Amino acid sequence: MVIVTPQDRKNSVWTQDGPSAQILQQLVVLAAEALPMLEKQLMDPRGPGDIRTVFRPPLDIYDVLIRLSPRHIPRHRQAVDSPAASFCRGLLSQPGPSSLMPVLGYDPPQLYLTQLREAFGDLALFFYDQHGGEVIGVLWKPTSFQPQPFKASSTKGRMVMSRGGELVMVPNVEAILEDFAVLGEGLVQTVEARSERWTV
């Protein structure tokens, strides 16, 4: 996949690390759902004309939803739908010099997302709207639920089972979901598993 710009006509700087096939599939699904909405809104001048509906992702496509506490989302006011209550961090009550030091790089959701991808990137894909999103969507990779031969060196996020007299490793989903909550303690409100979409 290549995004062609005047500066790079053959290989794109933007896609050289590429979206994976699974992410491209998600983009196609989202685009297919967005197009009829846009066409309906643009063709009906008397309609509500709320273009923001295109930017509200459907959450039913994810296997797990990690809901975050709005108190720790620094870009909460940038959300597609303005929150009823927002938490301002770093705003001075009075203009002028202050003895307070600004906090740079305060972005707990991005730090948490980085930890999730480092720890569980081989099992799942993580999606987050960095502009005020309150939910991290998790999609299990199709290969993550295939039994793998037992190796003592690679038991992270897996449990050992006996299948056909042979020891195999499968994802320990309950422990992984618990790890999602433990890693995000104070930031994570709930971890919702949609177990009807997948099985071990």
From TrEMBL:
The keyword ATP-binding does not apply. InterPro entries: NOL6/Upt22, Nrap_D5, Nrap_D6. Keywords: Nucleus, RNA-binding. GO terms for cellular component: mitochondrion; nucleolus; nucleoplasm. Its main location: nucleus. The keyword ATP-binding does not apply. It is found in: Nucleus, Nucleolus. GO terms for molecular function: RNA binding. Residues 1-57, 59-191 form the Nrap protein domain. Belongs to the NRAP family. This is Nucleolar protein 6. It comes from Homo sapiens.
